[in-house]
Write a structure and sequence with these properties.
The protein has about 425 residues and is an all-alpha fold. About 70% of the residues lie in helices and about 0% in strands. It has 23 helices and no strands.
Length: about 425
């Protein structure tokens, strides 16, 4: 009798509107009444799935899919009907990630899913479900799922993103400051959801221009507080737009990455091609007319992809160091000591992050014909000395420091000191002579 009374009591405790829509619970009662506990277990899980989908819809399917589906598959998930294409385990995992259910409820539901998959009606088994287990699972379904609502933080994130989509008035400085303060307080998984969704809104071609402008104002603070993993995932998505010829989305995505300072998080294959192209452009500007003016914009773009040493790709390293050194050593004229005043800061930044790993490139490249020709001019030798001093700042290895000191002490008077037999012997462990 306990099994008959218990489920009915639990179901009766539901609010009328929830009870009216919970169609699988009636099937649960029928199955339990006839002793078909595996049938009832399946009915419980189906009711859980339907409710989790409702929670996802109320939260926002775009946000939910951004969190549930990665890579190129994301574009195939757009409507509420597409929720049915998600595996139950993905639906459950994403609901926890977005705090639509608590961690404790997640563990309970994970157990029910495992039991349903292992001993449910669709899987032959010798295991017999007992009435107490079944009643416990029903209570989890009712108390922890059907009667539960998303956390306050989850609802705030939902409201923030929904409002962002439709807010077509300019964001004033006071509002911007308030948003930035709230963003800094959010949990990392919420920030991951927000940055993915704001990116999706930004790259949608029919997004209102003012909405896109608002995103450009608040996105940098979201990006700054976000973990690296979702940033790299967005880089992969951006590359996918290019690969799949989504020209409009790709161009808008490039804008977004520029706005948030995210170019180092673009995919390695994309960065390698882009940086190589920028280096060609920089060298062309350096050797062209009015180079002082034209170098800086290209140097700025280049530096946006290389903010720290880890951003330097090995296959770009030698060319990067050579071109930057050529620009930093300058053209040998007296005006501004031959170096672009606006470009100089970018060159110094790039040279300062070479460290032990890439400093040997800077020494070896001084032997190249183009550099040696520059070093014939006294002003270029002075700039080369300054460049080596900047490189030395980030070097820890004592032998490399010794090599750099050798050049720093001599290059202002002798541009060919890098070819001395003494230097070759000193640097032989790092430069293949």
């Amino acid at each position: 009798m306990g099994v008959q009374v218990g489920p009915e009591y639990a179901i009766e405790s539901l609010p009328p509107e929830i009870k009216r829509d919970a169609r699988y619970l009636s099937k649960f009662v029928v199955g339990a009444g006839f002793g078909l506990f595996d049938y009832s277990l399946n009915a419980i899980w189906n009711e859980v799935v339907l409710d989790l989908r409702k929670k996802a819809i109320s939260y926002g399917v775009d946000i939910f899919f951004d969190s549930a589906v990665g890579g190129k598959a994301r574009e195939f998930y757009t409507t509420e009907d597409d929720l049915a294409s998600l595996k139950d385990s993905v639906l459950l995992d994403t609901s926890r990630k977005l705090e639509l259910i608590s961690d404790t409820t997640y563990k309970k539901l994970k157990h029910i899913l495992d039991m349903r998959n292992d001993i449910g009606i669709s899987h032959p088994t010798n295991y017999t479900i007992n009435a107490f287990e079944l009643l416990g699972w029903l209570q989890t379904c009712i108390q922890d799922v059907l009667n539960d609502r998303p956390t306050e933080a989850a609802l705030q994130v939902q409201a923030f993103i929904q409002n962002l989509k439709t807010y077509t008035s300019p964001i004033d400085p006071a509002t911007q400051k308030t948003i930035q303060g709230k963003v800094a307080e959010l949990a990392s998984h919420h920030l991951a959801s927000i940055i993915r969704t704001t990116f999706g809104i930004y790259v949608t071609p029919d997004t209102d221009p003012q909405v896109r402008k608002n995103i450009s104002i608040i996105a940098p603070s979201i990006w700054e507080n976000c973990r690296d993993e979702p940033k790299f995932k967005l880089g992969i998505i951006l590359e996918g737009y290019n690969t799949n010829l989504h020209k409009d989305k790709y161009e808008l995505g490039e804008q977004f990455f520029q706005v948030v300072g995210g170019n180092p998080y673009r995919s390695p294959s994309e960065r390698a091609v882009i940086v190589d192209t920028l280096l060609d452009q920089l060298l062309e500007k350096h050797n062209g007319w009015d180079n002082f003016h034209h170098e800086a914009p290209v140097a700025d773009s280049l530096a946006s992809y290389i903010q720290e040493q880890n951003d330097i790709l090995p296959n770009n390293a030698e060319k990067l160091v050579k071109v930057v050194l050529m620009c930093r050593i300058g053209r040998g004229v007296s005006y501004c000591n031959g170096v672009s005043p606006r470009g100089k800061g970018y060159y110094d930044h790039l040279l300062a992050i070479l460290g032990d790993k890439y400093a040997p490139h800077a020494m070896a490249i001084l032997t190249h014909y183009e550099i040696q020709r520059k070093l014939g001019a006294p002003v270029c030798r002075l700039q080369a000395k300054q460049a080596l001093e900047i490189v030395k700042q980030s070097v820890v290895n004592a032998r490399i420091v010794e090599c750099l000191d050798y050049l720093i002490n001599r290059i202002e008077n002798a541009g060919k000191c890098v070819l001395d037999s003494e230097f070759k012997k000193l640097s032989s462990q790092y430069i293949g002579w």
